[in-house]
Amino acid sequence: MRNAARRGLIDDPEVWFLHRELRNITEHACNEDTAQMLWTGPTPGRISAK
Prior knowledge:
single chain; mainly alpha
């Protein structure tokens, strides 16, 4: 992700790190509260790619 940011392919690598962390949570989550948090997200709409 850092390399993609250096090349100008993504705007904010920190948001993509968060996305990866949230994705990893889904590997082990099977409850409604976690699903709701992942659906709404802590930063909805902030992930962008070029």
